[in-house]
Amino acid sequence: MSIIQFLRIIWARALLIGACTVFTFLGGFAVTLIVQPRYEATARVMMNVLKPDPVTGESGLMRNFGPYIQTQQELVKDYQVTAPVVDKLGWLSDPGKIAQYQARSATDTRDFRRWLAQQVADLTKAGLDSGTIFEISFSSPSPVEAKNGAEALRQSFVDFTLASRRQEAARNAQWYAAQAEVA
């Protein structure tokens, strides 16, 4: 086959090639107009799980690391973590969010704050990045909101984790104090 024959084949199919090119361009253009842009921001938390247990001295968490990380992933999407994010993003007074809430299904009986917290949870992804670094991602149509959402989620997650550890330590201290009194 010579180059002349190849060019004749292309010339014979020029209408089909041109139509495919035009329709592909128009389809791509329509998608860029219809699809809303998505920005994703991430925040990272160092998981301090390699320290041995202060009472037993063993570091048995490494064999249970998978379930621990799954628990943390679910905790990031929990209402106690996502509700403060709603406040920090200012969604409670956003007219667009209020209109969406009023247009929701009649079977949805959640209050406004829980409804917004569920939206935050739906836009959130969390998982282990590498080693013991826990990565929290938040996506939004606005890059600023994505950044603020990821940072608010990280801070809320750290605050909730710290508060729950303090509560557990206070309960342990009360138990040990009671045991000391008995002894």
Tell me what you see in this structure:
There is one protein chain. With 183 residues, the chain is an alpha+beta fold. The protein is 62% helix and 13% strand. It has a three-stranded antiparallel β-sheet. Strand 2 and strand 3 (133-140) form a beta hairpin. Helix 4 packs across helix 7. The model has no long low-confidence stretch (mean pLDDT 88).
Task: Describe the secondary-structure layout.
Elements: H1 3-12, H2 14-34, E1 39-46, H3 65-76, H4 79-89, H5 95-102, H6 112-122, E2 124-130, E3 133-140, H7 143-182
Helix pairs in contact: 4-6, 4-7
Question: What's the gist of this structure?
Answer:
The protein has helices at 3-12, 14-34, 65-76, 79-89, 95-102, 112-122, 143-182; strands at residues 39-46, 124-130, 133-140. The protein has 183 residues and is of the alpha+beta class.
